[in-house]
């Protein structure tokens, strides 16, 4: 199933400018790393829960958006257990989880086009405005096409299961990479075709 | 009018299109040919997505002014999943207009106008990845129409559609005022074109009325002798 990239709502969090949300996310994540203590971590974790309620993002959608990293969190937890102790391991995991949930709240409550405009504005200091547009477009596209890549992986997996191949990572990786590259080619052609250079539209069809 | 003058396209040292020359003055033109014949490459030549190795592409308006192909020839791809670049219909349709000099309010008006024209206003706030195949193809087409191109090139527009969606798309295409160039294997779609170009091995082997082109295509495909 495809993951949801944006939850349509009219919450206060949705209405906040995308730039403010991205800045808040960056600052909070930085604070989480600077203030290396439980009080700060639990306070931010509680704030995150409050924000998720305010954003009116259904719990199941939020859970699905962070679920893919659970496997990585388990590995980090085990590694931390060996390197430090259970308190430090729990601290690191809660910190990662809080950051992931916060980042998910930001993406689920911000339209890709708003995110793109915010990134473009933040990069306005670049000498060439086309570079800022291209960078923001690239970031937005990488968010938009996560479901497409997941789709490709699942199609290839199913095709291989149907042919009796299972759990062969090499057999999975190569067709997935080839299909992703082919899709990327077509997407880039489509963007070139749709951007249409800098044609100025002066004819207003709805006035006719 | 679009004119191609002695166009050659080379890929990996192999000639994909060989000395293609033609003039497109008709409103609806079909391009047919076997798999690997060079149809899609030819389609991409029309709006500059494919650059010819040699030869010239010229696009002119009624007053014979030379136009830039990229801004005046829209392109609808076979797979709308690769053409739709934003997760919400409204923001995807706004994508092409962003650099057109229109204000935010005008862009919203444009989107509502074009969705309303095809009775698709209910899709405005929908997630693009949750649309049906037919709806995706229509949104991809509207994404091109909204840029008001003079020509629209469609590459296999009905391949991924079921019968009902195909009928809807064909009806919409028939209502469009733009000049259409349709690359397709779908002979039902091609049979009503004003002119059909049959291409094989990178060269034009027929250009003329649809009935003759389809007959020649069937002979070329040798369907009577296929045993599988």
**What Rg of chain A do the Cα atoms give?**
21 Å
User: Could you say which structural class the secondary elements and strand pairing of chain B correspond to?
Assistant: alpha/beta
Radius of gyration of chain B: 18 Å
Strand content of chain B: 25-35%
Sequence of strands across the biggest β-sheet of chain B: 6-7-8-3-9-10
Largest sheet of chain B: 6 strands, mixed
Q: Please provide the ordered H/E string of secondary-structure elements of chain A.
A: HHHHHHHHHH
Greatest contact pair? A-B, 33 and 42 residues
- Low-pLDDT ranges of chain A: none
Give a structural overview.
The complex is a heterodimer of chains A (208) and B (228). Chain A has 208 residues and is an all-alpha fold. Helices cover 74% and strands 0% of the residues of chain A. Chain A has helices spanning 12-15, 18-34, 38-54, 59-66, 70-83, 86-108, 112-122, 129-144, 146-162, 169-195. Chain B is α/β, with parallel strands linked by helices. Chain B is built from 9 helices and 10 strands. Chain B has helices at 39-46, 69-72, 80-83, 89-95, 104-117, 133-145, 163-175, 187-190, 210-221; strands at residues 2-11, 14-24, 28-33, 54-60, 66-67, 73-76, 151-155, 179-183, 195-200, 203-208. Chains A and B meet through helix 8 and helix 10 of A and helix 2, helix 3, helix 4 and helix 5 of B.
